[in-house]
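User: Teach me something about this protein's shape.
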Amino acid sequence: MNKEAAVTRTSPGRRRKAKGRFLRFLAGATAVLAAILLARQFIPPALSDVQLLSVQEAVQTVKVAGMLIKEETVVSSPATGRVTFTEDEGRRLEKGAAAALVAAGQDSGGTECVVYAPVAGILCTHLDGLESILSPGNLDVLDLSKFDKIAVRTVSGGEKVEKGQPVFKIVDNLSPVYFYAEIPGEAFPSGMSGDILHGAWNGLPLSIRPYRVVEGGDGWKGLFILPAYPENIVHNRWIEIDVTTASLCGLLVPRRAIVYRDGSPGIYLAVKKKARWTKVKIEGELAGKVAITGQGLDENTRYVKNPVLVREGWPVE
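Assistant: First, the predicted structure itself:
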């Protein structure tokens, strides 16, 4: 007895559905591949950030707060009245130059008194009452660590002053200016020598040199001399400066620009709009910057600053 084998037939509708799913898959895969190719073509150039190599300086600084000690001569009003300054604050006056006028009231004769600079120096109206105490001549007898920050009073033009009231001072900017401060030990882990240190106050360059500095506790404290400083710093008693503790000069690139191959450091150069890896030697590193040297590297060489998505031969702009 013959048995007929069962034959499974696929309906035309099911075949069309399967074919449709395959075509959709093929279209999706093609779109993904196209997106990858487009991303390779356009995203790396957009994110690579091609820059020019240049000689730079990276610095590491520490903030140091302290007080200034300088030669100051306080001048008081000869009468009660309203004061007017005849010279701008910050101007250097010669000895005997007119600095201010005091218009005395009727009870003082109604006269106008001229106030002269008794010594040569910088005219300053910032007074704190410590001028005669915090003087270079008293350095041997003062315990400078005991002084606290106090308010500074400024005498303004047109202000009424009393007879005998201090109205301005003359700062001798040709005599040494001292700076008392305490510096944390971690700022100079290898010790502090007598060499000149460089820094900045309000973004303006200055230099300081240890004068009478002793190590104690977890750092150094004592007196420094300011060999060079912005002239308007002398109007202040308490200042904060950024002292440079380390510096690095050369062709500097961000640390992220370094790409290692087989253990060797290198960077990607932009050569004819294509990424080309070249080996470099790292000369130093500071504050997120790396100093490099290498064959053919000089100022204005175009390199890839952000190589995270870059590969050899890929387009970069």
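Now, about its shape. The chain is about 10% helix and 45% strand. Residues 12-48 form the longest helix (37 residues). If you'd like, I can walk through any region in more detail.
User: That's plenty for now, thanks!
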